[in-house]
Prior knowledge:
It contains 16 helices and 23 strands. The strands form 7 sheets. Strands 17-18-16-15-21-22-23 form a 7-stranded mixed β-sheet. Strands 3-2-1-5-14-13 form a 6-stranded mixed β-sheet, sandwiched between helices. By secondary structure, the protein is of the alpha+beta class. The protein has helices at 49-67, 109-117, 125-128, 137-147, 151-156, 165-173, 186-189, 204-210, 250-257, 316-324, 334-339, 379-405, 422-432, 444-457, 463-467, 482-499, and strands at 5-11, 15-21, 27-34, 46-47, 74-81, 87-90, 100-101, 160-163, 183-185, 195-196, 201-202, 219-221, 230-231, 243-249, 266-270, 274-281, 292-297, 305-312, 349-351, 369-371, 412-415, 436-439, 472-476. 33% of the residues lie in helices and 21% in strands.
Amino acid sequence: MKKRYVAALDQGTTSTRFMLFDRSGRVAASAQREHRQIFPRPGWVEHDPLEILERTAEVIRAALESSGIGPGEIAALGITNQRETTVVWNKRTGIPYGNAVVWQCTRTREICEKLAGQGGPDRFREKTGLPLAPYFSGPKIEWILENVEGAREAAQRGEALFGTMDTWLIWNLTGGPRGGAHVTDVTNASRTLLMNLETLDWDPEILETLEIPRAMLPGIRPSSDPMLYGHTLRDGPLGEEIPLCGDLGDQQAALVGQACFAPGEGKNTYGTGCFLLVHTGNAPVRSKSGLITTVAYKLGVSPPAYALEGSIAMAGALVQWLRDNLGFFETSAEIETWAARVEDNGGVYFVPAFSGLFAPRWRADARGIIAGLTRYAGKGHICRAALEATAYQTREVLEAMEEDTGRTLAELKVDGGMVKNELLMQFQADILGIPVVRPANTETTALGAAYAAGLAAGFWKDTRELLENRTTGKKWIPRMDRDTRARLYEGWLKAVERSLDWVEPSPE
């Protein structure tokens, strides 16, 4: 049977999606299911790995059934995933040692403070490109080993395995306890605080400091691997032995999906969080402005590409919070309708520091606030302020990016679920003062995973072929005058200052 499609499994923070792409990068089939967000304590966020595994099987079967496409027509499978979210499970049974600790979770703040007390918040930055922050996987592993009964003993016996969600899914799809591949790619490994950016291997000194046995860590592989990670099981949800050979963290996948293969090219993804990445070439660039140095991708035997990243914890998640926790509307899309009912934010600013502030400030002590409220403010103003918060945070990150790289972006490429919100996109262009460009295909995260797998399998010849698939959907031009832009941004900076020092340091 002719191989006409490449598959992508996109395991995100709020949902899991399975998509099929044809040779031109167009979507041929898609299915999506949400999973529960578990909040056992303030600041704690968890997912059930077994529920996500169930959702994975459901979306694969749903997409194939609705499209009529047979598994024999699929050339390869790529995976992209929420990064940093941490799972530890038993390799003999496949049962996790508790829920996954999600990237937004703040439970490891005291671990990070203790580590920083012995060497500062940049203790591991030279090796890993990352500051000490609850965001990353390494401290989450240490927390699980210290707090979950039996986990450390199992790890010391070689029975406990660690993985981010890509590793968890690859292991299960390729056999699980029956010999599943325990691997990750360089992009996901670079978000653990455990991988050395130069060697692209686990750093023994950091592992010793965090008391993490190396045996529980997956093998680190290229993002696009002609040697394959393995094959899906014939008795699995795909019903066929399909090469699994692409793996990228979600934000790096979006960079690849936007075909940003040259230094200086970048994109901003508006999803649960918001993430601005700029390609910096084949050598890591250390940030002096609060950004993360990360691996952008590694295609086969080619040298790795690196990127600077600005990570924002709350973007679409803030809209979801207004929907689910406060009942502001029934569907997330309705926020645009409410925000459009008012001319401006009415002096209201929303700082969504629910998990502290990420780049470029890295303040775990911050918490969410709504500032500037008067009797004049209404629901529309709060909705507008929630949308504007994403744009303001993006400007902070972009200014840090320009300071580090010495380059000014002529335009901002955007993707992700929130880019359907035209009010937000226009305000983003206004507050940045540069055009904002949305591609015709906004599913760039899944597309990037498909590209990685398709390149490894020979479905696409090289990256030049992928560049031909890139098309512009819509462009927003700035309309705001300079004085208004400056006044609004000054109000945002003032509101952010009010959100700081909310959580007291631990007594230690």
